[in-house]
Amino acid sequence: xxxxxxxxxxxxxxxxxxxxxxxxxxxxxxxxxxxxxxxxxxxxxxxxxxxxxxxxxxxxxxxxxxxxxxxxxxxxxxxxxxxxxxxxxxxxxxxxxxxxxxxxxxxxxxxxxxxxxxxxxxxxxxxxxxxxxxxxxxxxxxxxxxxxxxxxxxxxxxxxxxxxxxxxxxxxxxxxxxxxxxxxxxxxxxxxxxxxxxxxxxxxxxxxxxxxxxxxxxxxxxxxxxxxxxxxxxxxxxxxxxxxxxxxxxxxxxxxxxxxxxxxxxxxxxxxxxxxxxxxxxxxxxxxxxx
Length: 291
What we know:
Helix 3 crosses helix 8, helix 5 (about 170-180) packs parallel to helix 10 and helix 7 (about 220-230) packs across helix 9. The longest helix has 19 residues, at about 145-160. The chain is about 45% helix and about 20% strand. The protein is of the alpha+beta class. The chain is globular, with a radius of gyration of 19 Å. Strands 1-2-3-5-4 form a five-stranded antiparallel β-sheet, with helices on both faces. A two-stranded antiparallel sheet has the order 6-7. A two-stranded antiparallel sheet has the order 8-11. It has two domains: about 5-90, Phosphorylase Kinase, domain 1 (2-Layer Sandwich), CATH 3.30.200.20; about 100-290, Aminoglycoside phosphotransferase (APH), C-terminal lobe (Aminoglycoside 3'-phosphotransferase, Chain: A, domain 2, Alpha-Beta Complex), CATH 3.90.1200.10. Residues about 50-55 have low confidence and may be disordered.
């Protein structure tokens, strides 16, 4: 263990460090398993390059999001032990490698509904956002269709198109969705307190419950989190949806709007991983327009 790294973590958290062990890397961040002298275990992300490339913003956004989600006391959230421009340290989730079950998935649906019901002051958030390594504009707004168009669909459509990752017909389809968002969005809903990147990889199962990590948290539409769960196949999804609907009923026709809410994360994937996701963007846009 590097004594310099241990001292850095100790200064950031206010906790003496016993050991630090690298456990992987992602998005330019080194992942660390940390044992503190008092027996507490932590998980850390350390930026491996220049934090001006987005590391500081990403860690600050994640820390803000975790704290904000935790305020709802609905879904289990790891505690933020320390964060600065180059590092984020959170509490280790106990037995985080355990598997989901029907019971745990149902409980997660209940918890997620309660999280969303905690609400937000507006669409957006008081801090600059990040999803993976890309910036998210969290400028507050009062109308979800307008906000979703201006701060989620349009920026990533422009980014993907300018990089040559979408064809003209793909761009036209997404633009058609944007132009019709007011009629496609369903009944108006108040801002919900959402995770914002709620795919199955950001749920860890422990103690019979689903814990949320790595948020792109903001005031958003609650159907966005449910659409993300469906996008890459969350385990026991029917049980999650059953627990959710039993706690807070969903608006009529929400299933038809799933592609609309998946359009933003699919555009993000095009920007991050290339044109292999282009057909999925077009398919989601067509489905949204035909709903």
